[in-house]
Write a structure and sequence with these properties.
The complex is a heterodimer of chains A (270) and B (137). Chain A is α+β, with helices and mostly antiparallel strands and 270 residues long. In chain A, 57% of the residues lie in helices and 11% in strands. Chain B has a domain of 82 residues: Substrate Binding Domain Of Dnak, Chain:A, Domain 2, CATH 1.20.1270. The chains are: A alpha+beta (270), B mainly alpha (137).
């Protein structure tokens, strides 16, 4: 009798040791849930378009981790919650992706309408000719002339759409690049007025790019007012050249250097 | 020392525990219904075409949940129903995302054609078109 009890005790101890030594199944599922959530968190569109789903995934993971930590808790429960967390994180990514695609479809539909409406006859389409690009140390600089806005206004004219479509499409194809929108005015009007107008214009262009499905964190808008003129402000023609929007597309995913250094101003600056 | 009383108490405890356990875990009828609805939504979103794997997972877990419910295994039935539900949601969202991506690609191709046609026309119409450096790589 005694011997039997001893044998059972030994078996139980061995079993206990064995179950301690092998990692519980929940470890692997928890790791998978964490990495699925980390992946969803790294995608800025998820925070923008599917925050509720991501939040649910996080809460499920907290649940799973709580259960896993409990002494003597059923490991299957932790595995279960970790699985739900994993799937929810994946759902958040898919929902965000669907939203991004939907935004792009809307932008494409608008552009398509625009092209069709503008006619395919011999009419001259301005926007593409207005878009000049130059490679500089700061990145690719695209200069858009003042035909984007009416005088004193910060609302984009419909003719600006195609240039912005082009830029947005480029950014869509190059997810590692950032863009900085810089707007400038001529020297007419007060400094404060020009600064505010240029900032509003830069914001309008940036907003238009973001609306085409580019993540807001990749787009920065700066209004410089009448600073950094490219021409002398002495004639109508030179003033027109100063009224412009420059779009700097980064060469990589580095931040775009600022403009404060005089050596970096454009040729033609006084 | 095991007494008759002790055994009797143990039996009462077991019965009481059994009743409590039964009362607190009814069959997860609602969870099963939720999973069923999610699977139907996924099917409507053409998941069988765009997210076959996820949809299959949802269906087999739903079937297993029903089997568990028939055997009055409420805990397993509830878990399987919950998992079938998230699998179906993933199937649906994946299918929707893929279909939208497909539409984006179609529209992009369509727009490229339209743009180049429109550009050709505008260049032909423009007297002094400045050469623009193409932004695309």
């Amino acid at each position: 009798m005694k011997r039997h009890i001893l044998a059972i005790a030994i078996a139980a101890t061995l079993l206990g040791l064995a179950s301690c030594e092998t990692a519980p199944e929940s470890d692997a599922q928890l790791a998978q849930a964490r990495s699925a959530i980390a992946q969803a968190e790294a995608n800025p569109n998820v925070a923008k378009f599917a925050p509720t789903e991501l939040d649910r995934a996080r809460k499920l993971l907290v649940n799973a981790e709580g259960v896993a930590k409990q002494q003597g808790a059923d490991d299957a429960t932790a595995v279960h919650y970790a699985y739900l967390a994993t799937q929810m994180a994946r759902i958040s990514e898919q929902r965000a992706q669907e939203q991004v695609a939907t935004a792009r479809i809307k932008a494409s539909e608008a552009e398509r309408k625009d092209i069709l409406l503008s006619g395919r006859g011999n009419e001259v389409h301005q926007p593409l000719e207005d878009l000049q690009a130059a490679q500089t140390p700061r990145g690719i600089v695209l200069t858009l002339n003042d035909a984007l806005f009416d005088s004193g206004k910060a609302q984009l004219k419909s003719g600006a759409r195609r240039s912005i479509d082009e830029i947005a499409a480029f950014l869509g194809e190059n997810p590692g690049r950032r863009v900085q929108v810089e707007a400038f005015t001529d020297s007419d009007g007060t400094n404060d007025y020009n600064l505010e107008l240029s900032q509003s214009r830069a914001d309008a262009v940036a907003m238009a790019i973001i609306k085409r499905g580019i993540d807001a964190q990749r787009v920065r808008a700066l209004g410089y007012g009448e600073e950094f003129p490219v021409a002398g402000n002495t004639s109508d023609g030179s003033r027109q050249r100063n009224r412009r929007v420059e779009i700097i597309v980064s060469n990589g995913d580095d931040a775009i250097p600022g403009r404060a250094v005089p050596g970096q101003t454009l040729a033609g600056s006084p | 020392m095991i007494t008759v009383n002790g055994i009797r108490n143990a039996i009462w405890c077991a019965i009481a525990f059994g009743i409590v356990a039964c009362a607190s875990t009814p069959m997860p009828v609602e969870k099963l219904a939720v999973a069923r609805t999610s699977i139907e939504r996924a099917e409507q979103a053409q998941a069988s075409q765009f997210a076959q794997l996820e949809l299959d997972g949802a269906r087999s877990k739903y079937a297993a949940a029903q089997v568990a419910a028939d055997k009055h295994d409420a805990l397993i039935a509830a878990r399987l129903a919950d998992q079938a539900d998230v699998d179906a949601q993933l199937a649906e969202s994946t299918a929707r995302a893929k279909q939208q991506e497909q539409r984006v690609n179609e529209m992009d191709a369509d727009l490229r054609d339209l743009r180049s046609e429109s550009l050709r026309n505008s260049v032909a119409g423009a007297q002094t078109a400045q050469p623009a450096v193409p932004i695309r790589q």
